[in-house]
Amino acid sequence: MQENPYQGFIAGDYSKENYDKIDLHRPYVDDIILVSDSGQKMYREKDLIDVWFDSGAMPYAQLHYPFEHREDIDQKLRFPADFIAEGVDQTRGWFFTLHAIATMAFDSVAFKNIISNGLVLDAKGNKMSKRLGNAVDPFSTIATYGSDPLRWYMITNSQPWDNLKFDMAGIDEVKRKFFGTLYNTYGFFALYANVDHFRYAEAEVAIEERPEIDRWILSLLNSLIKEVTEAYEKYEPTRAGRAIQDFVIENLSNWYVRLSRKRYWGGEYSQDKISAYQTLYTCLETIAILSAPIAPFYADQLFLDLVAVTGRENVESVHLSDFPVYDESKIDKNLEERMQMAQDVSSMVLALRRKVNIKVRQPLHTVMIPVVDAHQQESIEAVKNLILNEVNVKELKFVDNTAGILVKKIKPDFKKLGPRYGKIMKALAATIQSMSQEDINAFEKAGTFTLMVDGQEAVLERTDVEIISEDIPGWLVANEGRLTVALDITVTEDLRKEGLARELVNRIQNLRKSSGFDITDKIHVSILSCEEMDEAIHDYKDYIANQVLAESIEIMDNAISDATELDFEDFKLSVKIEKA
Predict the structure, then answer these.
(1) Between helices 384-391 and 333-355, what is the axis angle to 10°?
(2) Which site from 294, 309, 503, 508 is most exposed, i.e. has the minimal number of CB atoms within 10 Å?
(3) HSE on the CB side for 467, CA within 13 Å?
(4) Which pLDDT score, from 0 to 100, does residue 471 have?
């Protein structure tokens, strides 16, 4: 070397000024010649391997192999990796070099599973950038919505390997629908469990001794555990999250809790009530554990709030608890099918109510179902009472499809049939639309139907057509697949009065809540006489009193001091409630 490259450099001085005195980049580094122990000259190696091979050596470098942990690599105890994740742009970088080194050095793959993450785009599908002003600040987003709703939204919105169109409204919806529903379900449980001092101290109620609604939700819960476990093990978190979300919203909250609500209200601390508490507790605790990989903080809080009271788990965190294992003996597919039928029928009836703006609190007289076969009738018959309670209808009648009460029409699906029967499609459509009521009924029962059109055989599947029923006077009709329901929408005077009584119960319950009354408080109710309401109160006085925990209900002729004016659709009603 002609001169000292470290001229003026002071060892141990880490200031910028000191380090500005030297530059070890090319070409200056090539002027440096080192001397080996044997006195040989040493130059910079000019042929360098791709720097990505540094990252490709990660499985061994992280363990300081081969100087430490040699057996972990050689005996494949910590190699190859079970799972890695990186962006799709790493296909020719990290993914390749990991496998290249593993193949050359160990004749092995470097990893068993991979998720190649897609890109996060804006709501319109454009790439985010500060220049375009469409970039999202993750820290402010977490501060506004929380990290768990953000994580849940991103994982359940699309598969990790797909590009995600990021929309703040989606996070808000997840926070409200999933986390809000789960919070409200826990809040409902905690409210009544605290009143009854439920601590899960009682012996476990045997599954065969529990009501059907409990056995159904526990069957679904075990099916959920099975599905979620399988999804996690296959590295499909999107499927796991969606299954958990659907269970909580559609089954646990919208169906089980709503139909079981009265079991928690008042009454004796019976086996039925204990079964209701144990069932809902089990569902909440299991959901907390299943959700923990996606929503670690929320799940941990829910889990700890539950076990702090019951002491059923002696662990400090949900992340230290054992993952649930499904119990095949508790899965009853026939029961799940029956309850799904109840949900489907109820959903269709409630949709018909909305169509003509008839509230659920207004009782109606009859639901009629034209049955396709004996199995369908048996399934609905088994859950008939649940359906009637859910849709607030007095009677459910079955009629044979051939009874001629409902007139059905059939329409071909051109998108499905066109590619298969292009040349005869026009004639086929005309033939389908001219099918008789007997043929349509036979088609619904069998699921397939064969027609001869211009000398060619056309085999129709149920999904190739749309079958609809025409409304009949005084009734509304809805179709969904093989299921048809007809609802009598005539409101008689007796039904109208019962509807008013139910509406009054709802208003008094809201008044109790806004007045800060405890759920166990007995009350006295005073109501100013009202022509539109007096007869309904008189006929349904006992029902109203039982629902609102009233020891007395008095209709007053003179103005009531400090009364609250309740606004009904066609009149106003002055009501006063006081603690008994």
Answers:
(1) 30
(2) 309
(3) 28
(4) 67
